[in-house]
Design a protein that fits this description.
It contains 6 helices and 4 strands. With 133 residues, the chain is of the alpha+beta class.
Length: 133
């Protein structure tokens, strides 16, 4: 497979999970004929037969099972990235403005002050007032 198309792989995940085009059509909103064409294109791109086509649906070949395991892992990682991104920007920011020494102190003690599971992001800003008494 030269260029993996994540959209096709996500559709593959739905077709494999639903056991056919009709169930995948309901879940994705993509028409069954289009799904069929995309699965054929995916098989051509990978050079592997991924499905056994039956009158009652699709079942995976051994190569399809291998690809499904990889795509499930990719999907889990993609979901983790999406959640990380959503959570990171949805959390409130606690800003601390301090001099350089305090910023260094906070940086050295960061694990005691803040952790990734905390419901906020921490922003430390070191400010120096040069020329002022």
């Amino acid at each position: 497979m030269k260029d993996e198309n994540w959209d096709d792989l996500r559709l593959f995940l739905q077709v494999a999970g639903e056991g056919g085009l009709m169930g995948a059509e309901r879940r994705t909103g993509v028409s069954a004929p289009t799904l069929g064409r995309r699965m054929l294109a995916l098989e051509r791109a990978t050079g592997h037969s991924l499905f056994l086509r039956h009158s009652k649906g699709y079942s995976l070949t051994p190569d399809g099972e291998v690809l499904l395991a990889h795509v499930r892992a990719m999907d889990a990682e993609a979901n983790a990235i999406r959640l990380w991104n959503e959570n990171g920007y949805g959390l409130p920011i606690v800003s601390v403005a301090c001099d350089g020494w305090m910023a260094l102190f906070l940086a050295r003690h960061l694990p005691q002050i803040w952790g990734p599971a905390d419901p906020f992001r921490l922003c430390v800003k070191a400010t120096e007032t040069i020329g002022r008494p």
